[in-house]
């Protein structure tokens, strides 16, 4: 009885609100002369319900008041006898919303957070991976170089101090300006403060670091420095473009046409950190707080040599410190794609946290308490990352590289629901820089299976149920419109679609309901790339390799699909994609620059697809009579 209400550790705010509502209940009991909870009878609870519902308060407060009493009843077996409500559940099995006569969404355990639009999420993940894998090293190296420059340990600064020891400022200035002129660069610039007139001025502090001098002395000789710069025809640039080399490529060309600026690199490393967070948070399925609390060395390998993340639980029992003040560790199975962003974050600095509150000077109080960057600040950084990508890498047609989400702003808490959608739907074609969602599914599901946190599995069940409903609706409409089906499982395909379409649906308000309906209604028809699998375990050709590896296959694996499998069926939609594949294979078979073995393979593939298309058209209703007339 009580276990159904207390199997999850409530948040502090939830406890606070419940106690507040119970205090109101206790005050009401006192006005009726009831001083002990054990003296309450069901009639009293009915009177209290009517009193609460008659008050001029909003519906949500009424529902909370009823729920608080039920929570107290849920704990009755754990309370002293004098603190126990009657054994009968207050107000029967009706929901608090039903008792209040309102519908405010109820206590559905499903993740109501809206998904990120597929086009937005695909582009965001693809660009985050590109920045991490192709541009990340450049940004990291420039940032580390900038840190050494600020600390005075940069090789150029050390060499300048040794070379110019005892040399006057004019000689140092002339040497520095000559180097800028030969490199085709201008004078390093910075925005001056308003009290100094504002506008763009020479960055005296940067010049001082390079020539090995004190910045105040360089500033005091600013007129001399400006005169020498003008004599050599040097303009003032917007930053000190000095740091790093550009090795990353975009479309075969360097992704930048100049080195990094001293101040610019601070922003870029913040955006790189946001890109790393997108990749880790999205492809791991972890909650935002769990990702932001990851620490150096969190990526490890288990006894099977598989990647796991070791961190702190972000929700539920055990998320807080123990009696000794230490936090319990939690392990999640993850894909190897996360190795690159985690290694990059660990190499940027020696911070304990992968996502420290600041890499510079802000939020030192958070750092002192070993608190990571806040979720709100990371969300802002991700939105800034999207703006930077769209400003810097716009599409040739002028459209944004990362299209906006039509629902609301991007934030980390939307990623888990979106990942559940993608691993269930698994859209064809390029899936965000070749990330295989089937692999992500198995890893993330493995990471959560058997643990206290089951919300990920619930999200998957809901997404699969929604996909099933959409798919059956589309398939039935196509059959009604005269779509032809061929292949060894064509008849079984039609039977399953019509059988599943009879299901009228029902209200789903619990996770177990979604899973139960999915199990009962799932017709096991899987649309793949230019083929459809009407799954039957006994006749599946792909199961041989799974069973050889000691695995029990429960769904098709298109990577192991065989053309002679008895489970295959081909819709008109599949055949249209087969025709597109045929054009590509025929072109490859006739390519004079391709090696002969590859041309032979392309020709064989083209022949196989031709036979498949011919069989599909030959078995189309009416095709036989047309053939007889032609004869």
Automatic annotation (TrEMBL):
Residues 591-631 are annotated as: Disordered. Keywords: DNA recombination. InterPro entries: DNA_brk_join_enz (IPR011010), Integrase-like_cat_sf (IPR013762). The keyword Chaperone does not apply. One of its GO terms (molecular function) is DNA binding. GO terms for biological process: DNA integration; DNA recombination. This is Integrase. It comes from Actinocrinis puniceicyclus.
